[in-house]
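Protein of interest.
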Amino acid sequence: TVARRSVALSDADLDHVVSITRAHSNFRARDVAMLYVLFATGAKPVEVARLEVGDYLEEGGSVRVESTLRAQAAINGAARPLFFANVKLVAAIDEYLVERVRNGQGAGRSGAYRGLAPDSRLFLTAEGEPMAVHAEVCGGGLQHKCRSVLEIYQRIFRKAGLPGVSALRGCEKLPCHRGQDVARRVSRYPRRLGIG
């Protein structure tokens, strides 16, 4: 059993993970974008799986810098602010969306949402399908998980030599994801991933 890291991931750690992912992933654009979503927004893996193109893009194709994590997507069923303000995050997602359009994955009406369907999932499987979310009985209640997303993050961290880092805890390891006020976190740590 690998002990979990108890220290925050540094900028150098994250740069290393991104670099390794770019070099070795078979789906590098998607996987790098998913990494940045995890660390720059604080979204949980199942929330990443539930994100839709319309959560990220306006109809005209511009980025929703100040978006909302829909109640249907949030792990606790409560909507909350979601910020796509990080330049590296936006560049990574944009690169992936260009690839999706080129591959005809999740196509929508021409000219709107960059040619993608707004209600299609933001991240898709290699085959262009939504990543399945399933419910498991846990502690007397239901817990929703996305095994595909968890496996992608586990593979990324393992390949980068950080097998003890969990996607479920990864976002908690950066100072910009502690606490509940997302807006305050973004403004307080603008340089964490190269903002500002």
Summary: The CA atoms of residues 135 and 141 lie 10 Å apart.
